[in-house]
Amino acid sequence: MPDADQVHTPVSPSRVDDALRLSRARLHRRAALGDGLSVALWSNQYDAVRYLPTHHTMSLYLDGGRSTFREDAPQQRGAPGKFCLMPAGQPVNWVVGELQHFVHLYFAPEQLGPLALRLLDREPREVRLPELNFTDDAVLTGLMARLAGLDWSTPEARLQAGELGHAVLAHLLIAHGQRTAGQRLRGGLAPALRRRLADWLQAHLADQITVGEMAAFCALSEHHFAHAFSASFGCAPHAWLAARRIDRAADLLRCSGEMGLEAVAAASGHASASHLVRRFRAARGLTPGQYRTGAARTRRSGVDQSVGATAGMT
User: Fold this and answer.
1) One digit per residue, pLDDT tens: the chain, 314 residues?
2) Where is the HTH araC/xylS-type domain (predicted)?
3) Are strands 69-70 and 26-34 parallel, antiparallel or unpaired?
């Protein structure tokens, strides 16, 4: 069994993958999935690693882990199928034993805001993810194992990986998210007004909406509105609109195969096709064309599997 003082203990950088690169861990493959998500497959043995990340990390042991523990909780050990959730800003020191393989899903805290609003009808500041160590959850184990099983090298594989990553976040928030206790919320929009504003903005994504128009909808000054919006939605108005416009473009690309790129750009509130391409690639890690191709292949694969299953029953 390794001792924490006898193995390499690096200074903890702000990213978990950077900390692992400074350790004895081996990176097998990594991919950026867009939307602030990235995934990596690692192995490590007989090491000590210190994390103090600025992002959240979901980790699943694929094999090994039975001799791995946290320095502050040596009685708890890992195992295949166990997962850990390491929230941003919380330090943790790991002592790694025999050879283990594990998959990491990294995601920015900002990714939880839209999910909290949509799935829980709660403001982002009302919900937090707890630290979880060597936890069992069949749904998360299945999602993360499927994520690890993809090769991530093709647009359609990264698209599937992104969908699985979003499913992981949604399940984490619903099954393990905690409501912030003892916090008196101030300065945000009233829940009913927040919902009306979100619906109105979704209905006008193709329009060039100004902060003044949003403030007028809420009967607030522009200055007060900007602060209230950020408190309630977890980001500035322009950032929220940009993300929703990318979502709209993705929906159109996935469901409207004959729709030209200029039409998709106009319908989703982008100034031009080139503007959409730049924004979409930055957000999703794929061009709109790659995303559409990957979505079509994924859809055809699902149809083929469904037809095969139906034929097998006849």
Assistant:
1) 444 343 333 334 468 888 898 999 999 999 998 888 999 999 999 999 998 888 999 999 999 999 999 999 999 999 999 999 999 999 989 999 999 999 999 998 888 888 887 788 777 778 889 999 999 999 999 999 999 999 998 877 888 898 899 999 999 999 998 876 555 556 788 888 999 999 999 999 999 898 889 999 998 888 888 889 988 888 889 989 999 999 999 999 988 778 999 999 999 999 999 999 999 999 988 899 999 988 888 776 654 444 344 344 44
2) 195-294
3) unpaired
- Kindly list the strands in the beta sheet with 69-70, ordered across the sheet, starting from the edge strand earlier in the chain: 47-51, 92-96, 69-70
Q: What are phi and psi of 112, to 5 degrees?
A: -80, -20
Say whether domain 191-299 belongs to CATH 3.60.20.10.
no
CB of 105 closer than 8 Å to CB of 62: no
Report the CATH superfamily, name and number, of domain 16-179. Jelly Rolls (2.60.120.10)
Please classify residue 296 by burial: count the beta carbons closer than 10 Å to its beta carbon, then call 0-12 exposed, 13-18 middle and 19+ buried: middle
Contact predicate 103/59, CB 8 Å? yes
Q: In the chain, where does the domain assigned CATH 2.60.120.10 lie?
A: 16-179
Every domain range in the chain assigned CATH 1.10.10.60? 191-299
